[in-house]
Amino acid sequence: MLTVWGRATSSNVQKVMWAVGELGLPHRRHDVGGVHGGLDAPDFAARTPHRLVPVVEWPDGTVMWESNAIVRRLALLDPDRRLWPADAAAGAAADMWAEWAHHALQRPLIALFWAFVRTRPAERDAALIAALHRETVAALRAAEPILAARPFLAGDRFTIADINFGHLLFRYHTMAIERPPLPALAQYYEGLTRRPAYRAHVMVDYSSLVPTP
Amino acid sequence: MLTIWGRATSVNVQKVMWVVGELGLPHTRINAGGPFGGLDTPEFLAMNPHGLVPVIKTDDGLVMWESNAIVRHLAMADPGRHLWPAASPAGPTADMWAEWAQTVVQRTLLGVFVNIVRVPPSKQQPAVIEGHRRELVAALQTAEAQLADRSFLAGESLTIADIVFGSALYRYHELDIARPALPALSAYYGKLCSRPAYAEHVMVDISGMYVKD
């Protein structure tokens, strides 16, 4: 059985749990981080030098941190390579679009989430929020023609690229921000929301992250 | 023969070229980006819709962009798996430290580099540079602890973790910034500098890149 340490509201934990859910892996998850604390607990600190979630331990004793690397190992260990195709071209496309999603979308969108959702209204930096919103929308606009031409970010199949990209779309669609019409993206997101693993692990209420007034 | 598009002074190109050099792959590199331009031609955008270097094309026509995905692809395609061991636990360890090096070390180094090299002296903001430098040094202190009892970041041999981490160290040592004494890191950097592929592809003079007033 796989063990996952990390609170359900962490977007990086959500990537890992979504992959776990898609692959149907037996697992248990311990709430760690945020309001749950536990980053200094000996059994957690012994597994990572960085005091960050997620951390995963496999039945063979392998321990990993860094969500993208964990998702890759989960995908590589799957005998059917459902999330990271063994075919060279399809596999390369999945990994490069996953990497792109991490740099182009996750960075500005998570920064926007912190500056907007996780900051009290009186303390918000409007110029910073506007700049991060522009960067977020620019990345989504870059994805729009790709998603207009194929069902998933890296091709005809759901892959690690969709995990890295798609897990951010719940936050994007639930934050009180302006969203330009992007029909292919809207249709793609609607498709994700019908996946049971996405509903269970990504569409997680994050109101506990909002600071009290 | 592998073809690589990208200027030799791009740190993302350097990661790929260092791998090419370590693995001894026959290749041709075509200068693109920066003063060489060429990123907005239809031919280049057909390879990479994001208009960024590096881009590679393999013998069998596979085109890839995103340097970290390219590094993983080349490391996995190597039959000896020299840079990304197939066996557990060395493989997962290499990948998670590579991911850490990208998201923490390369990101903070870029903050220092851009604000010193890409901003003319009269417009530089010492407080901004210092903020990035402190974050970078904190990351290097984590690496110092990791390197205290091993030869390379993920163990006793050079892996993709060293490619992503080590490619930041030349610039760190070349920039005119305060560097705390980190003896294990210094010894490690000395070892990298004695590797022919590092000397050729990473230790690329940056003095011509400074923006002047």
Please provide a written account of the structure.
Chain B: Residues 87-213 form the GST C-terminal domain. Chain B: This is Glutathione S-transferase family protein. Chain B: Residues 1-82 form the GST N-terminal domain. Chain B: GO terms for molecular function: transferase activity. Chain A is of the alpha+beta class and 213 residues long. Chain A has helices spanning 11-23, 42-45, 67-77, 88-116, 126-149, 160-166, 169-174, 183-192, 196-201, and strands spanning 2-5, 27-30, 55-57, 63-65. In chain A, strands 2-1-3-4 form a four-stranded mixed β-sheet, with helices on one face. Chain A starts with a strand and ends in a 12-residue tail after the last helix. Chain B is built from eight helices and four strands, in the order βαβαββαααααα. Chain B is globular and about 50 Å long. The mean pLDDT of chain B is 97. The chains are: A alpha+beta (213), B alpha+beta (213). At the A-B interface, strand 4, helix 3, helix 4 and helix 5 of A face helix 3, helix 4 and helix 5 of B.
